[in-house]
Amino acid sequence: MGRRKTLVEKRLVQDAVYWPSPTPDGYGRSTFGTPVDIKVFWVWEQEMFLDIDGDEILSKAVVYIDRDLTRGNDGWGFLWLGKTTDSGYNADPTSLVDAGKIRSFVKHPDIRARHFDRKVHLI
To answer: What is the pTM of this model?
Structure first.
C-alpha cells in the first residue's frame, strides 16, 4: 500500500512546462535548460510575497508543483500552463504570453512533517 497523498498533491492535476533557470551563453543572452512536463495546481491569483532578496512583490499566479526546484544564478526558471506537445508551445518561455518567471519557491511540511507541499510565485 502506497503512502497517502497530501491535500495539495491530490490537486496537482494540471499540466505545465517547467524550464530550469537559464544560464548565460557568453553573448549577453541566456540559454534555458531542457523543458520538462510537470503536474501542477495553477491559481491565477495576485499574492504579495517576499523574494529571496527580501523585496515585496505582487505575483500574477501562485502555482503548486510536484517537485523541488534548484535555484540557479538567474532564479528558479519559468513555468507555462500547458504541455510540450501543445500547439502553443515554444522552447523559449520568454516568448509565451502566459509563461511566468518563478520568483519564489516555498516548501511546507504536512502535519506530521513526513511529506511536503511546494508552491511558487510567478511574475
So the answer is: 0.88
| C-alpha R_g of the chain | 15
- Residue 12 one-letter amino acid: L
Burial 41-56 (b: 16+ CB within 10 A, else e): bbeeeeeebeeeeeee
User: Angle at CA 43, nearest 5°, toward 90 and 59?
Assistant: 80
For 78-113, letters b (16+ CB in 10 Å) and e give bbbbbeeeeeeeeeebeebeebbbbbbbeeeeeeee
Side chain identity at 114, as an amino acid letter?
Answer: R
Question: How does pLDDT run across 59-95, given as a tens digit for each residue?
Answer: 999 999 999 998 887 789 999 999 999 988 988 898 9
Domain boundaries, the chain: 7-122
Residue 104's identity, in one-letter code, is: S
pLDDT digits (tens, 9 = 90+) for 47-60: 999 988 899 999 99
